[in-house]
Amino acid sequence: MTGTPFLEVRNLTVEMKGESGAIRVLDDVSLRIERGRTMGIVGESGCGKSMTALAIMRLLPPGFEITAGQVLVEGEDITRVPEARMRALRGNDISMIFQEPMTSLNPVFTVGDQIAEAVKQHQGLDAGAAEQRAIEMLKAVQIPGAEARLHAYPHEFSGGMRQRVMIAMALACQPRLIIADEPTTALDVTVQAQIFALMRELQQETGTAIMLITHDLGAVAELADDVAVFYAGKRIESGPAGAILRHAAHPYTSGLMSCTPRLRLSAAARDGAAVLREIPGMVPQLGRMPQGCRFAPRCPLADDRCRSVMPPDVEVGPAHAAACWKAETEVMA
Amino acid sequence: MSDELLRVNGLKVHFDAGRAPGGGRRTVHAVDGVDFSVRKGTSYGIVGESGSGKSTIAQAIMRLVPITEGSIFLKEHQISGLEGQSLRAVRDRFQMVFQDPFSSLNPRKKARAAIREPLDLLGIGDEKGRDKVAEDMLAAVGLHREAGRLFPHQFSGGQRQRLCIARALASRPELIVCDEPVSALDVAIQAQILNLLRQLQAEMGLSYVFISHDLAVVQYVCDEVAVMYLGEFVEKAPAAKLFSSAMHPYTWSLMSAALSPEAERGTLAKRPLLGGEPPSPTAPPPGCRFAARCPFATERCRAEKPALRGFGEGHRVACHYAGELEPPIPELRRAA
Ligand SMILES: Nc1ncnc2c1ncn2[C@@H]1O[C@H](COP(=O)(O)OP(=O)(O)OP(=O)(O)O)[C@@H](O)[C@H]1O
Ligand SMILES: Nc1ncnc2c1ncn2[C@@H]1O[C@H](COP(=O)(O)OP(=O)(O)OP(=O)(O)O)[C@@H](O)[C@H]1O
Ligand code: SF4
Ligand SMILES: [Mg+2]
Ligand SMILES: [Mg+2]
Predict the structure, then answer these.
(1) Does residue B231 lie within any of the structural domains?
(2) Are residues B20 and B151 in the same domain?
(3) Each residue of A291-308: pLDDT tens digit?
(4) How many residue pairs from chains A and B have C-beta atoms closer than 8 A?
(5) For residues B175 and B97, is the Cβ–Cβ distance under 8 A?
(6) What ipTM score was computed for the predicted complex, to two decimals?
(7) Residue B173: inside a domain, yes or no?
(8) Contact state of B261 with A220 under an 8 Å Cβ cutoff
(9) Which residue in B213, B244, B263 is closest to A221 by CB distance?
């Protein structure tokens, strides 16, 4: 993992300008996404996962602004490039799948037209070739009767099918990074399983990198090579998925692990005495962040230093870092 | 059984869905003949995918939708037949907690007034007594007694769900129908609410009908579980039995699709996954409703409807081949 990664986010800070001054929604966030790999981004609602994605795409909502840091795409800092360059990057190199597919598909155009338009714009194909490509893509995401469905409108598709269409559109220009923001949260588990299986298969064929935003550690285990854990606008742990899921170094990450209910099948289903641990309290409010470690008010290990001084990011294992005063170094078994 | 609190018999709830293309009316078979009973002090779980009819069962129990057929008893009271004053007389005995803690609270009502609401509506106790109950309920769900002076928007999502639970508890009900009470919450808050529900049950002897699409959550809370598909129960059993020896192919596919933080990468790809999506509830197929997606389906499945059959210890399965099929999940094979 040496050399330039496909995407590197360095010390990214995003602020929201309000009447009472600027409020930080992302604070000094760093992460690397390697070519062809899947990076899972996890954390509780409001911790800044979507903001990170939108900052990378330079699609932040009005009032929000990158105030420090860099977003490097193969070494090029895209926080500074002109909008025209950004538009070229957005369909061609990086594409995004939004949480609610209905809001990102245009209801007045057929699904086929929307995919074809994207490839015409970004890849300079003519109308015939673009339609051919749209059919190919709908087939690739396993939409039955692709030729006929080309002329259907988004509302004629079920939620699962619409999410497939979104994936087809995201893939149509063969991007090198797909940012998927909670792509299956609104779907049934059986449909989620189909979508995840499809994403893995397509990644193996195309070698695209994926940034998967989710609140589900199970989804991370299923898909991710690497993981970044966010808490209250900070990236508090990152590293290889196996290391993080098995030897979480940050108390917040281990807290998340222990409060996730596990399905217990077979003999385990008969011993009824499971107890779910809790993380007490709740996330701090924006603009009212504690002075030291942001997790300190809820952390079972917190001491005076934690409450007064922000912990630095420390290396706890190979490519594994955690921002915690008490983070233990991985012990190699 | 003497400790039976709730009994649902042959419940059907059909909705009119407008004119059919070929003339006549279209009917949504949202709930199409379900039976179950909830014992006092226990939790009855209902799992299934979106649109299977879970919320409609909850609303039928709460008398929020018209019941097409069947009956519902709360102890000796046939609540499905009660109207007006006689319904109000038992209305304090069963309450509901909804999925969305944001829209189920009136934004202009302070927390204490929200919790008092059912008492006010049912005319239980006097002014002072109701305020006292409201404060006790705030404490019972782990909020400050003083929090009663705040408006819903001054609470976080998890705290709002606590408020909804406090409101449901105020009339000292015996039964609480929880419709996806944690689905809108983060895992950390979800764990707090699930533990709170278990603790309140232990302290107050409450019974729950607990609806969720998450098998792991249902397993954590419930004593008995029914798996629902397209308006019908396809399998039901005591929880320990269901999770150790499920027999219905649909239950298996829910189990196969479940994710775990401990699983190896790419686990789903190695599992038998269900294709397609549930058919429309306006025109349920004649045979087994799962046949179109079932990997084991035969001609018989498509033609003849399987009835729920007993397999001992309260385990009932609606599949022609129940007990003859090999579970595609290794853990279940080992148990058998
Ligand atoms: N349009 C907006 N205006 C004001 N604040 C916003 C807006 N969008 C997001 N925020 C705030 O910015 C912070 C980061 O939000 P973000 O959407 O990145 O969270 P998230 O991690 O994606 O959460 P979720 O899991 O709920 O999607 C949150 O505190 C949120 O309330
Ligand atoms: N008032 C209504 N009028 C017409 N159809 C309805 C009505 N309420 C529900 N339905 C339909 O009845 C079926 C069952 O819906 P229900 O809300 O009970 O499902 P559910 O299992 O709770 O799903 P979810 O997991 O999405 O909450 C669905 O097809 C739904 O569209
Ligand atoms: S009855 Fe047939 S179609 Fe239905 S679940 Fe059983 S095997 Fe599958
Ligand atoms: Mg988000
Ligand atoms: Mg529902």
Answers:
(1) no
(2) yes
(3) 999 999 999 999 999 999
(4) 153
(5) no
(6) 0.88
(7) yes
(8) yes
(9) B263
